[in-house]
Protein 1
Amino acid sequence: MLVVPSIRYSQLPRFQCSSLQAVRQLRQLQKAAVASLPTTLHRFSDPDVVDLRSDTLTHPTMQMRQAILNAPVGDDCYKEDPSVNLLQDTVAKLFGKEAALLFPTGVMANLVAMMVLCDSRTSEVLIGEFSHQMIYENGGLATLANVNPRILRNLADGTFDLEEVASKIRGNYAYEPTTKAICVENTQNYIGGRVIRPSFMKKLHSITSQHGVKIYVDGARIMNAAVALGIPPGDLLEYADVAAIGVAKGLAAPLGALLVGSTEFITNAYKIRKLLGGGMRQAGIIAAPALVALDTMPALLQRDHKHAKMLATKLAELVPLGLNIDMDAVETNMVMFTVEGLSVKEMIRLMAEPTDKDGGQYIIKLFDNGNTVRAVMHYHISAEDINKTVAKAGAVLRNLPHNNTPELQQQHDIM
Ligand SMILES: Cc1ncc(COP(=O)(O)O)c(C=O)c1O
């Protein structure tokens, strides 16, 4: 049984002032008090379920839960929540920007960023066809921000063709929308967690800066990109004007995202967040676990990336049975694959069917990514879960009619 040491309030100094220095001191004491708590925590859900649908499924760790309990709070609409102020200050510094602003969700952060960057009518943004903003955000860009999205092809590595970018930038011509910003997603989720490198950002900037076009980064998983490249996270944003930083994906905070940018941008974003009902009161209970997430979780992302490679390598053994996978595309915590002669939906359904045959008595949950099946690694996923997934995939594939020949059965009786 997990024993959770609790911090007694009487042991903590009373929180009397809202200065960043005071809250930093308090946090040091809290950090020492929770250091003995496990960073990771096994999921509370059914152990017979291996849930690989997303890293958004991560539960907050014990340290995060303890931080919520002990968070110094205030009214953030008066900018008096010390935990929020500390988080914003920490994230702005970490990403090399002047200021930061906390949001409940990445979707709201993306929307507000677009509303601020495109603050006049007839504005346009260049955006990847496979970006989260285009696919999964209810068209908020057009319907709420009144911005014209101009679609760019996403290349296989998640980047854009720079000639296409240059040809699609539009100036101040009376008949056409004016390009105000370009959106980059790092890591690129839909394509499989691809990492957008600083070298690409530099080239992009050399084009956009000639036209006053701002670079926006949806960094829901930007820490995965930094960990994969082994570079400080700020290096990824050197050529970006504004970014959204996610803390509720692989970093496992329960919710939250922060916009980072210039002080002027953040001042404007603050007003638009309020307009949308995003002004929060004692938001320290969101900020406190986010601070723990930034302290403790990046080190664990490396393990998720290793697990993704492990899963991909083992799935590649099923290629003779009709599984398609691009090993080079596995850069962070996601694995994409397809199965010949089987739709994505059907593969997902079969993997989620409980069975006590070769695959054992458990189910595997996977994500329907349109043309591919997606499996996402996160800190709840163990090497054993990966073995179960591969065993189950092998059983599903061997049972397909076209694999049900004695030769193939014998040849690939590998699980
Ligand atoms: C790339 C990307 N951007 C933005 C979001 C939205 O984040 P949130 O769920 O916090 O609104 C997600 C969510 O999965 C995402 O994958």
Protein 2
Amino acid sequence: MVNQAGGGQTGLSKGGQLQKDRRFLRGRGGQRFSALILLTLLLSLLAFADGASETYKARCSACHGVTGAGDTMIGKNLKLRSLASTGVQSQSDEELFVIITRGKGKMPAFDKKLSQDQIHGLVRHIHSLKK
Ligand code: HEC
């Protein structure tokens, strides 16, 4: 009904809609909104407690992509295979640990930048990408 108003009335009815929206935000919608914020906070806390996915995003995603698919500019240039691929997934925790620690080919070593715990976390993170 709001949008049916033509010409000079459009401004008026837009104002009406705006007021309704505000009321909506203050009312039930407001509660839902704060619940959403709480949920987001909780989830980011959980992610932080785990840490590995944060470390991955900060240290690895520039080359390997956020999902590990290697779908970044650098990843494509380096012809990275997906970290979820069988070729990567079939490697043991130890093998992945060594690759991340010492680096491989054009991949830099991370032994000076990350703790052993962080690297173990990344190995778990990579193996969790298995389809
Ligand atoms: C500067 C780009 C770059 C960054 C940053 C990087 N990598 Fe790599 N990564 C590579 C390249 C290039 C290879 C392929 C090396 C090869 O096979 O010669 C590779 C290979 C790998 C492999 C083996 C994949 C396979 O095909 O067997 C794993 C596992 C891996 N990286 C994990 C990580 C993790 C975890 C991080 C973050 C701590 C990371 N990489 C950061 C470039 C990068």
Protein 3
Amino acid sequence: MSDLQAPNPLTRYDAARRALAEVHRFDELKNLRDKAVAMQAYAKQAKDTALITHATEIRMRAERRAGELLREMAERKERDTGKGNRNPALKSQAATPKLADLGVSKSQSSRWQQLAALDQDRFEAKVGTASKHAYDRMTQKVLRESKIERAKALSNEQPLDKNNLITLVTHTGRQVEYPLPKGKATFNRTNQQVDWAAHTWNPVTGCLHGCRYCYAREMAEMRETYRAAYPVGFTPLFHHERLDAPANTEVPKEARCDPRLKRVFVCSMADLYGKWVPTEWIEKVHASCIANPQWDYLFLTKFPKRYTELQLPSTAWIGTSIDQQSRVKYAEEAFRNTKGVRVKWLSLEPLLAPLQFSDLSMFDWIVIGSQSATVQPDGPVKEFAPPFEWVARIVAQARDGGCKVYLKPNLLGGNPNPQSPGMQLPQEDPEEEIADAAARARREGRAS
Ligand code: SF4
């Protein structure tokens, strides 16, 4: 089965994108264009905002190419335009197809040939505008529907059972009623986004950093299925009832062969070391970790200075997440001054800028990734993949510093990440250099 017949529409889309670059026959091109239209319909149904922009782009490129072919066929008298232009070399009338025989309406033919007549720059601008409009229309629709779902859920909401409630507190001391857990607190299994740890544990939820790419905020505030678990949305909240999870969860036997199985990503839905987090919360989380050294605890913060002020669990993997150059200096300082932990790591996911480090020897491990598309309370945020050079520079520096590197699969576009644009890879041609050198020599020759 070819990719174009694959059951997964995303796979078919990816194959269509590759095939478009190679196709020359009109019927094949028309087939690809029709698949792009189907892909747009699928993306709308799936509310996949990233896919809809790609499908719109494929459709427009296919239609422009179809317009070129229609014009060429008319010029070569290979199609009947109804103006007595049948090719005498083609014996029968049936051998000179009309638009209808090609499955094309008059208005499509006219629109596609208009697209074909645009110069390249104007066409690219049109593609960009159309994709953006399609993307905006879809994300506005998703936001509208999400608001309606929320309103419906609020009106249908069951009153909390007053006899089965516990009281939690936010970072400002506000009390929040929360359903009493049914059983003992244990860890959760991770989703595919976190492929380096098998468990998550969230004794604190919520964060005030306000990163626009935050998938955790999208879950807490935009997804109806998580509403009950986040009664105050992304406001920082202490879950004291979850502190026993490390003691209550058994380390899987298979962890002897697969160390990932004894790694726990702590506070995947928060920044545990944010400036607003009371020290008492952090100390309680650390105490639970220290009492249960059978687990490896992966922490991640944008305030690494707090690591230097606290007693850390010896099985901690302390991490810092850097998304802008101004954080680099503070991270380097904090990590040089922190000792007595299992691993020191750096998360560059998403890598949004060409970051410069003095060196990377203060880290044991670096994770680099792209930004996925997300829908935040104030609107949609598009996906972003860094240029190859930004990644390559950091990898080279990591090698010099003796630091391990983990490149997330979401750096690559297409399958298996149809929602990622993929890194901008260098695709240079040695002939360009030769041409440049020749031009330089000519200029220099003229100057002497
Ligand atoms: S620091 Fe992390 S949890 Fe906080 S807003 Fe940024 S991405 Fe979200």
